[in-house]
Description:
Layout: H1 3-8, H2 23-33, E1 45-51, H3 54-63, H4 68-72, E2 75-82, H5 83-116, E3 120-124, H6 129-136, E4 142-151, E5 170-171, E6 173-177, H7 182-186, H8 190-207
Antiparallel strand pairs: 1-2, 2-4, 3-4, 5-6
Bound molecules: flavin mononucleotide.
Amino acid sequence: MDFFDAITKRATVKRYEKKDVDDKLIGVILYTANYAESAGNLQAWEFIVVKDDEDARSQLYNASLKSDAVKSAPVNIIVCADTKKLSLKYQERGENVYAVQDTASVATIMVLTAQMLGLGANWIRALDEDKVKQIFGIPADIRPVGIVTVGYPAEKSEIIRRQPIENLTWYNFYRKKYNKAYYFQTGPKEEVFKPIVNQLIDKLKKKK
Ligand SMILES: Cc1cc2nc3c(=O)[nH]c(=O)nc-3n(C[C@H](O)[C@H](O)[C@H](O)COP(=O)(O)O)c2cc1C
């Protein structure tokens, strides 16, 4: 699977097969996640891999406001932010803004890596942070911001249509149309757009 497909063919997976995921694959997901961008390169994130423990999974299911994905996923990774680390360097902005943005950046890489590995994933925010802290013994200055569920998809997820990007992008000035990029000339037809992107990437590689 190429990078382009990993992004455009990805869909959130909410139901998983009852099939174990090799810990080596979980290792790859965590390893790549650790390369995510982070404010000041603090890497103010920590992970709890919930796996092979029915009781822990069931408690997480209750604390995640009964998410079906958490219930059926063989692996649930709790993504935490180290708010102390962030507030020491960035004060209130670190604690409230970067904690959320850093973990969102990490979660994006995790979900995409899972897709590249032939797995499925779901980024879940609907959780009771206090309950999760209590269940997993998470200290006060570590905040469980979300959960990434991982497993083999039990069904093919539908790729949800996106709003056209041309309706969401402006050129130099808000509401001024941006119509120079390839995409805006070809429209959202991937069979037209993808070869152009790949040619462009090849050309840029050769230039190096
Ligand atoms: C910040 C954020 C919070 C989300 N929270 C939840 C959630 O609590 N439960 C859930 O099932 N999906 C959650 N999702 C997944 C979105 O529902 C999903 O990405 C969106 O519907 C688009 O579908 P797709 O990922 O299949 O393209 C969340 C995604 C993001 C980025």
